[in-house]
Design brief:
The complex is a heterodimer. Chain A is globular and about 90 Å long. A two-stranded antiparallel ribbon of chain A has the order 1-2. The two termini of chain A are about 45 Å apart. Chain A has helices at about 10-15, 30-35, 45-55, 55-60, 65, 75, 85-100, 105-110, 110-130, 145, 150-180, 185, 190-195, 195-205, 215-235, 275-300, 305, 310-335, 340-360, 365-404; strands at about 240-245, 250. By secondary structure, chain A is mainly alpha-helical. Chain A folds into two domains: about 10-100, no CATH class; about 110-380, no CATH class. In chain A, helix 9 crosses helix 19. In chain A, about 40% of the residues are buried. Chain A contains 20 helices and two strands. Chain B is α/β, with parallel strands linked by helices. Chain B folds into three domains: about 10-100 and about 180-195 and about 360-420, FAD/NAD(P)-binding domain, CATH 3.50.50.60; about 115-165, no CATH class; about 200-355, FAD/NAD(P)-binding domain (3-Layer(bba) Sandwich). Chain B has helices at about 15-25, 60-70, 115, 150-155, 160-165, 215-225, 265-280, 300-305, 400-420, and strands at about 10, 30-35, 75-80, 80-90, 90-100, 120-125, 130-135, 135, 150, 180-185, 185-190, 195, 215, 245-250, 285-290, 310-315, 320-325, 330-335, 340-350, 350-355, 355-360, 380-385, 385-390. In chain B, the strands form seven sheets. Chain B has a six-stranded mixed beta sheet, with helices on one face. In chain B, strands 13-20-14-15-16 form a five-stranded parallel beta sheet. In chain B, strands 4-5-10 form a three-stranded antiparallel beta sheet, with no helix packed on it. In chain B, strand 22 and strand 23 (about 385-390) form a beta hairpin. Classes of the chains: A mainly alpha, B alpha/beta. The interface of A and B includes residues 27, 31, 37, 42 and 76 of A.
Chain lengths: ~400, ~425
């Protein structure tokens, strides 16, 4: 078996934010310090070694970067200041760009100019579409339903969902192939299906994170995650109360309700209606989470916030702006200020859509798929190996029985 | 010699470096004042079980040096003494030395009657607090000067009078007071040495709360015939013989969060201590957890000799965490084998932390400005005109290096008062 070495790997990783990895003298403190590191999947030192030695393929085969939740205790206790936690973060960025077959992700990560231009381009395109497809701007009554009817927005949502899913899932497939290798087909399907619930569980709870020394990060992430999931369900899945296109919808669950022909204004749920309360929860949860993360990164308050890549800022800024413009739209609609509301709504989508389109398949947000998948595949592998061990233990016993 | 008012030399610190400097200068014909903070000379070497690499007791080397001092009227020794201030310039320093009361005068014959009469006990500083000693005590068996000391807590207690009356030689003076001595010297050798890095800062190793996690200096006392266990290496928690002993290297050394430098001596010191364990326990498993083994020149022979022991496991990996079983007080070391990338949790009975050398000057600097390096060591032997740093005051060093360094500093100090 030959091992390929890329002497330029460390240089390349610098574009992804690598700083101090070359200071590592391989004492192993980080790996033994990490509460998530296990015998079968030891990290982070192994990955730092791969990076230093230019073992690109080895990194590509590793799922460990996705098993690390960056609590930062390895970096805090590193005797050399080699910041192994940051190296793991850098490898997650690099891996995201490697899984992406389009090459877009790599450009997005390695050039801040490209990153900014991409966001601007998508934003302008969305703004243009919003203007082109706008139905009726009622300048007396602020009505979203009149300007952009939910039925039309649903079609746009579906197109976007199809495109995003295609890119993300094809990248996830590459991740699975790289990290599983020959095992992918060797492991019986039975094990994959029996562990499937773990995939959902990890997606929803990030439960491994609870083992970290500093649990604040987990809680903050849960706020952002549950907030965003709630918002996503409301504005994408339940915009029309389901799939209006094929008649699979319930008006009782509709997020954007038809306008009242009598007043000409959108009908808004009463304050204590569950849908409206869920909307408020989503807003507040993301606002707290994103502000905490932004503030932490600005003050470099702890190890995971000490080094910020351009894409970290971009993601948080877009998220924060999405919430702020969303709040503005809500208030302007309640106050019935049509022009400002229409403008803010266009801005809201000019922020939210680029964030989704660029971050979900190609950048930071792709972790929503890679992380639970890595945790799930780890469980699948462990179960497979445990079965092999059990078979090995049984085999000699059977042989003995036959001999007797 | 225009500016040289006096040719006397002051040596501060009576450990290996200071002793060597003082004796060499005195034997070259110069008057020497030797100032020592402890009530005895010999420093940390006196607390060793065996010298390295010859593995012989330190007392024989120290005995020769004490003999040389006794025979030489040019050396004046001040124990329990600290330098308070230094004023003046090379060739003409005015030094104030503060001397703490010993409460025992030169009539003492070290008969031990005072200790017999005393019931009050104090933590034994000579054994790093691993046992207690009577508050009227001889610092250690071969203490020089061979004279008892009274702890201030005893002097203030109701027992003081009884202890004083027990002395048949009228050697105890309960009203002895602190005094200061003014000295005029031409040059100064500073050799205040080092202290073991404070393990309370190593919270990942229990921070001193686990009884069976001891430091390398404590291990020397544990293995020494005049130590707290008369030389038996046992677990401090229950006095049981350890089956498994772990030596954890770089405990607070080569670490940005603690001492960033390598103390240079701990690798071989731990391997030396591994031979203590092996001598007492032929079947014990010994782990030596290291980042790199720093053995220069012929010291590698020693490493190879120890490596031949097949129950001594050279384990490449820095221990990140030690946890204690609260019931048995046994320990588990969490460590990555960096050769195989495997993560291990290794149960052991006794852990010896190789804590590094923190320069005393990092906490107690000279009372006059001299340049220090970033770790608190005096930056070079030529600290200032007329002031010379020797031994571990300027760099981590072993005993033999300290002897050579003390001698070198003595020559510098002599040149300083003679050459003008």
């Amino acid at each position: 078996m030959s091992i390929k070495v890329d002497p330029n790997l460390m240089k390349d990783l610098k574009h992804f934010g690598l700083k101090d990895a070359s200071k590592c003298f391989h004492c192993g403190n980080c790996t033994a310090e990490c509460p998530l590191s296990e015998t079968g999947t030891p990290f982070p030192r192994k990955l730092v070694k791969y990076a230093q030695m230019g073992l690109k393929d080895k990194i590509l085969q590793s799922s460990e970067p996705w098993l690390c939740y960056y609590c930062g205790s390895c970096s805090d206790r590193c005797p050399r200041g080699a910041d192994p936690g940051e190296t793991m973060m850098v490898l997650r960025r690099w891996l995201t760009s490697q899984y992406d077959w389009t090459g877009f992700s790599r450009k997005f990560y390695t050039s801040e100019k490209f990153e900014t231009m991409a966001v601007l381009a998508v934003a302008l395109f969305v703004g243009l579409l919003m203007l082109v497809f706008a139905q009726e701007f009622d300048w007396q009554n602020a009505s979203l339903e009149k300007a952009w009817p939910a039925a039309g927005m649903e079609i746009a949502d579906l197109i976007m969902a199809a495109i995003l899913s295609f890119f993300l899932l094809s990248n996830v497939w590459r991740f699975i192939k790289f990290s599983m290798g020959d095992l992918l087909t060797k492991i019986p399907l039975r094990i994959y299906t029996s562990e499937a619930k773990e995939l959902v569980l990890h997606f929803l709870t990030q439960k491994r994170w609870a083992k970290c020394e500093d649990r604040t990060q987990w809680v903050i992430h849960l706020l952002i995650m549950t907030g965003y999931t709630t918002a996503f369900i409301l504005v994408a899945v339940l915009l029309c109360g389901g799939l209006e296109l094929i008649g699979l919808n319930w008006d009782a669950l509709r997020f954007q309700r038809p306008y009242d022909p009598a007043t000409g204004r959108d009908v808004i749920y009463p304050f204590f209606h569950p849908i409206r309360l869920l909307g408020y929860y989503a807003t507040i949860a993301i606002l707290i989470g994103a502000t905490y993360a932004l503030w932490g990164r600005m003050r470099r308050s702890k190890a995971p916030y000490k080094n910020s890549h351009g894409t970290d800022w971009m993601f948080l800024v877009l998220l924060e702006l999405t919430v702020i413009t969303g709040i503005a739209v809500h208030i302007l609609r309640l106050m019935n200020i049509p022009f400002a509301m229409y403008a803010l709504y266009i801005l809201h989508l000019m922020v939210a859509v680029p964030m989704l389109v660029l971050e979900v398949p190609f950048a930071k947000w792709a972790h929503l798929a890679y992380r639970p998948m890595a945790a799930y595949l780890k469980g699948v592998k462990e179960k497979y190996y445990a079965e092999l061990e059990a078979q090995k233990a049984e085999a000699p016993a059977e042989a003995k029985a036959e001999a007797a | 010699m225009a500016n040289t008012v006096t040719q006397s030399i002051m040596v501060v610190g009576g450990g290996m470096s200071g002793l060597s400097a003082a004796i060499e200068a005195a034997e070259a014909g110069y008057e020497v004042f030797l100032v020592e903070k402890n009530p005895y000379l010999g420093g940390r070497v006196a607390q060793l079980n065996q010298y390295f690499p010859k593995l012989c007791p330190p007392y024989c080397g120290l005995e020769i040096n004490f003999r040389r001092i006794k025979d030489n009227p040019k050396v004046k020794v001040f124990t329990l003494a600290e330098v308070e201030s230094i004023r003046g310039v090379e060739g003409d320093f005015d030094v104030t030395v503060k001397i703490h009361p010993r409460y025992v005068n030169e009539k003492c014959t070290a008969c031990g009657k005072c200790a017999e009469a005393c019931t009050l006990e104090i933590e034994n500083p000579f054994n790093y607090g691993m046992d207690t000693v009577k508050a009227a005590y001889l610092p250690h068996d071969m203490a020089f000067p061979l004279r008892y000391v009274l702890d201030p807590s005893l002097v203030q207690s109701a027992e003081a009078q009884k202890v004083k009356e027990a002395c048949p030689y009228d050697a105890i003076e309960l009203d002895m007071a602190e005094k200061t001595v003014d000295l005029k010297v031409g040059s100064i050798v500073w050799a205040t040495g080092w202290k073991p890095y404070d393990i309370s800062k190593l919270d990942n190793y229990g921070g001193g709360a686990y009884p069976n996690v001891i430091t390398n200096v404590q291990m020397e006392r544990l293995a020494a015939w005049n130590g707290p266990t008369q030389g038996k290496i046992v677990r401090p928690s229950d006095g049981q013989a350890p089956q498994t002993v772990a030596f954890v290297q770089c405990a607070g050394s080569r670490d940005e969060n603690h001492l960033p430098f390598c103390s240079g001596i701990c690798c071989l010191a731990s391997l030396k201590q591994a031979t203590y364990v092996r001598e007492q326990y032929p079947d014990a498993t010994i782990y030596f957890f290291y980042i790199d083994v720093r053995a220069t020149d012929r010291l590698e022979d020693f490493v190879n000799k120890v490596k031949a022991d097949d129950k001594l496991i050279f384990f490449k990996g820095k221990v990140a965490k030690i946890t204690q079983d609260d019931a048995t007080k046994s320990l588990v070391c969490r460590v990555e084998n960096t050769m195989t990338e495997e993560l291990h949790e290794i149960p052991v009975d006794l852990v010896v932390l190789a804590t590094g050398m923190q320069p005393t000057t990092s906490e107690t600097p000279l009372p006059t400005p001299v340049p220090y390096d970033e770790y608190g060591f005096v930056a070079s032997m030529d600290a200032m005109p007329g002031i010379f740093a020797a031994g571990t005051t300027r760099t981590p060093a072993n005993v033999a290096e300290c002897v050579a360094d003390g001698t070198a500093a003595a020559l510098k100090a002599i040149q300083s008062v003679v050459r003008r």
